[in-house]
Design goal:
The complex is a heterodimer of chains A (134) and B (116).
Chain A: H1 11-23, E1 27-33, E2 37-42, E3 47-53, E4 57-58, H2 60-69, E5 75-78, E6 84-85, H3 87-95, E7 99-102, H4 103-109, E8 120-121, E9 127-128
Parallel strand pairs in A: 3-5, 4-6, 5-7
Antiparallel strand pairs in A: 1-2, 2-3, 8-9
Helix pairs in contact in A: 2-3
Chain B: E1 5-10, E2 14-19, E3 31-37, H1 47-50, H2 52-62, E4 66-72, H3 73-79, H4 81-85, E5 88-89, H5 90-96, E6 110-115
Parallel strand pairs in B: 1-6, 3-4
Antiparallel strand pairs in B: 2-3, 2-5
The chains are: A alpha/beta (134), B alpha/beta (116).
């Protein structure tokens, strides 16, 4: 039984993420440990180490806390498509090879050859980032 | 009966606001708060620790789990969190809200910010 997390992540958020992983055609397998930490095996053979959080606006402090508590994580994903992150958090992730996404983006990123570089695009092809709040 | 007080230990580098369902529902499941902090006085890497006493005080006062969002002043300006969520200052919120507490029906305590 995984340890209970102290990030206030409800089981409904975790179970949604698990169901989505189970249904994603780029996910070969995954394992959940420490309640909210996912080791995902991509069908291309790569491994993604993902910390699932639930931050309305994932800020730099939360990313730094995530790295301190889960130093092996190379993705921090905030549950809820209505949630987002700050430009500072995203930029820190870029500079430190950490993918910062909301959950919808993350499942899109799994379809990219380099998931950490994933971004949505507007009609003109310009990148869109979820710098937003609930 | 004299007035009771509760104390919320808030870092002097921060402004704290309440938002979310607790402002609109008497049966909220948690207390959503955002602390906007000055990162020249509180490093982002230390922000959770610096706000731990405040979270503890709020849990005790409200009887609810506390969901803390931490943003620097710059981050808040960038995403407009307070405006977009309709967040209100913590002392104002605690004064207005009916929060789960002892259930004795007594007059709710006054809330006092203690700046650390």
């Amino acid at each position: 039984m995984p340890e209970f997390n102290d990030w206030n992540i409800s089981y409904s958020v975790i179970s949604f993420f698990e169901r989505a992983l189970n249904g994603h055609d780029k996910v070969a397998a995954f394992q959940r440990t420490r309640d909210i930490y996912f080791t995902i095996t991509h069908v291309n053979g790569s491994t993604l180490n993902v910390l699932l959080v639930y931050e309305y606006s994932l800020g730099l402090a939360a990313v730094l806390r995530a790295k301190a508590e889960f130093p092996e994580a190379d993705y921090v994903v905030t549950g809820g498509n209505w949630n987002g992150y700050t430009p500072e958090a995203k930029n820190y992730g870029r500079q430190n090879q950490i993918g910062i996404f909301n959950v919808g983006e993350f499942f899109g990123a799994l379809n990219w050859t380099e998931p950490k570089k994933y971004h949505q695009k507007d009609r003109d092809g310009n990148p869109i980032y979820n710098y937003k709040n609930p | 009966m004299g007035t009771r007080f509760t104390t919320i230990r808030i870092p002097s580098s921060s402004e704290v606001y309440v938002f979310g369902s607790v402002l609109h529902s008497a049966t909220a499941n948690d207390l959503d708060i955002v602390a906007i902090y000055d990162d020249s006085r509180c490093l982002p890497s230390e922000a959770y620790q610096r706000h731990a006493e405040m979270v503890s005080d709020l849990k005790q006062t409200s009887g609810l789990p506390v969901h803390l969002t931490l943003l620097t002043n710059s981050e808040e300006r960038g995403v407009g969190f307070i405006k977009r969520t309709g967040a209100i200052p913590i002392v104002q919120a605690l004064s207005e809200l009916t929060l789960r507490s002892s259930g004795t029906g007594e007059k709710p305590p006054a809330h006092v910010e203690l700046r650390l």
